[in-house]
Amino acid sequence: MDYIKAFVTGGLLCAAVQILMDKTKLMPGRIMVLLVVCGSILGAIGLYEPYAKWAGSGATVPLLGFGNTLWKGVRDGIDKDGVLGLFTGGFTAGAAGISGALIFGYLSSLICKPKMKD
Predict the structure, then answer these.
(1) Which of 1, 58, 89, 90 has its CA 20 to 30 A from that of 97?
(2) Do the domain assignments include residue 24?
């Protein structure tokens, strides 16, 4: 049942974003920023954690989850380092995921031999 909840939740988020892309003139980059900011705000007011516990990976993998991760990192950084944590907390919290994406993207480019478009 956990897999079904994650699949349906992630699918509904993706469908909502696709509708937003189709029905508005917002560019994809702005929609991505909107999702990260919404995840941060929902985390700050305490609504994202219960949702993420219920939905599992369907809530934590999309950009909303990344925004929530950044918020948690900033909150922990402020608790640990004061005002300096405001600047370092998000980097610390997101470093593993971003590093993994870069490393695996590079490794797949070595295996697949990408070519430039004409």
Answers:
(1) 1
(2) yes
